[in-house]
Amino acid sequence: MSAYAGWHLWTASNGTPMATRIGNRRPPEGDDGTWARTLIADSPDDLRRQLAEQAALDADMAAQRELG
Q1: Which of 13, 27, 28, 48 sits at 20 to 30 Å (Cα–Cα) from 55?
Q2: Distance (Å, rounded) from C-alpha 45 to C-alpha 23?
Q3: pLDDT at 1
């Protein structure tokens, strides 16, 4: 799972897969609560799904910034 740029992936002591954004990133203005700094998953597949959702959200926000 190390292919996720901008994320530190780790497993909690109880085995829970987790990911935390790297750096001093903050939610964008107007965030509706879907942007996450830390992801907590039920399984590795669930973490991959959540990371994909965050990547899509980041891409949408980047496109909106470009449009001005």
Answers
A1: 13
A2: 24
A3: 47
Q: Is 52 exposed, middle or buried (0-12, 13-18, 19+ CB in 10 A)?
A: exposed
The pTM for the full model equals 0.85
Would you tell me how many other CB atoms lie within 10 Å of the CB of residue 7?
Answer: 20
Q: Are 9 and 47 in contact (CB under 8 A)?
A: yes
The 10s digit of each residue's pLDDT in 20-54 is 999 888 887 778 889 999 999 999 999 999 999 99
Q: Looking at the chain, list the stretches that DSSP marks H as alpha helix, in order from N- to C-terminal side.
A: 44-67
Phi then psi dihedrals of residue 62, to 5 deg: -65, -40
How is residue 63 annotated by DSSP? H
